[in-house]
Amino acid sequence: MTNEMIQLYQFTPAWGLPNPSSFCMKLETYLRMADIPYQIAPDADVRKAPKGKMPYIQHRGRAIADTELIIEYLKKNFGDKLDQDLSPAERATAQSIRCLVEEHLYWAVLYSRWAESENWKINKQTFFGALPPVVRTILAEIVRRQVLKSLKGHGMGRHQRDEIYHFGKVDLLALSDLLGSQSFFMGERPTSVDASIYGLLANILWVPIESPLKEHGKTLDNLASYCERMKERFI
Ligand SMILES: N[C@@H](CCC(=O)N[C@@H](CS)C(=O)NCC(=O)O)C(=O)O
Q: What local confidence, expressed as pLDDT, does residue 2 receive?
C-alpha cells in the first residue's frame, strides 16, 4: 500500500517557504494543485538522488527524477485535469514560459545565491547547516565549486554580474507583461506552468537573499499579487 503513495524526496523547508529550492517547490505545488496524495520522505539526500538533483519521487518501486519527467508521469498515472483543456498553441506558450523560468531566469537566481559572497553565507547555512561542522564546511565548498562550474557550463556564469542581473530583470519584466491582469499565466484557471513560475518567483521575492532580481521583482506588483494568490490557493 505504501508503494502506492508517492514518496517525495526534496530539500528541507526553509525561510518560511515550502522549499528553498524552486524545483522542489514547483513539484510540491504541482502535487497540491493536482490533488495527488504524497508523503515527504524523511531520509531525502541529494547524494542518493538518481540524477544527483532534487526533487525526485518513488512510486510503485520506481524512482523518477526531474520535475518535467515526474509531472509527465503523474499526468499519465493520475490524469491531467490542470492542463487538459489547453489548446496546442496554449501548450506551446506554457512550454516556452517554463523554459524561460527554468532554463534562464533560474540561472541568474543560482548566481545570486552561490556566487555572491554575502548571499552564499545565508545559502550555505540553509542547505548545509544541519551537518556536523567539519563535514559542513568541506561539503559546502565542494558543492559550491560544482555549482559555479555548472554556471560556467550553462553560459550564464561567463557574464559580468551586471549582465547576469540584466538578463534576470528582463525575464521578470517579461513574466509581468505576460501575466498582465490575468489571475494565472494561462488565464483565469491555474495550470501546471504556474507551479514552475510560482516556485521560482517565491524563491526570489520571499527569501532573505538580497539581489537586484529581488529589488526589481518587488516593483512588479502583479507578480507579487500572483504569488499571494498561489499561496492562498495551494499552500
Ligand atoms: N531539471 C531539474 C532541475 C533540478 C535541480 O536543478 N535541482 C537543484 C536544486 S534547485 C539541485 O538538486 N541541485 C543539486 C546539485 O546540482 O548538486 C528538474 O526539473 O528537476
A: 59
139 lines ligand 1 (CB under 6 A): no
pLDDT at 193: 98
Q: Angle at which helices 192-205 and 22-33 pack, to 10 degrees?
A: 140
Residues 164, 116 contacting (CB under 8 angstroms): no
> Which atom of ligand 1 is nearest the CA belonging to 24?
10
| CB 126 near ligand 1, within 6 Å | no
Task: Give me ligand 1 centre to Cα 98, in Å.
Answer: 15
Question: Is 0.85 topped by the overall pTM?
Answer: yes
Ordered by where they begin, the domains of the chain are: 2-78 (3.40.30.10), 88-234 (1.20.1050.10)
Q: Is 71 in the pocket of ligand 1 (CB under 6 A)?
A: no
C-alpha cell at 173: 519584466
Q: What is the pLDDT of residues 168-202, one digit of tens each?
A: 999 999 999 999 999 999 999 999 999 999 999 99
Cα of 145 vs centre of ligand 1, distance in Å, is 15
Check if 68 has its Cβ closer than 6 Å to any atom of ligand 1: yes
The x, y and z cell numbers of residue 111, run together, are 548566481
Question: What tens digit of pLDDT does each residue of 83-102 get?
Answer: 999 999 999 999 999 999 99
Lowest-confidence pick of 94-103, 126-135, 217-226 = 126-135
Ligand 1 contact via 35 beta carbon (within 6 Å): no
The CA distances from residue 135 to 55, 132, 142, in Å, are 23, 6, 10
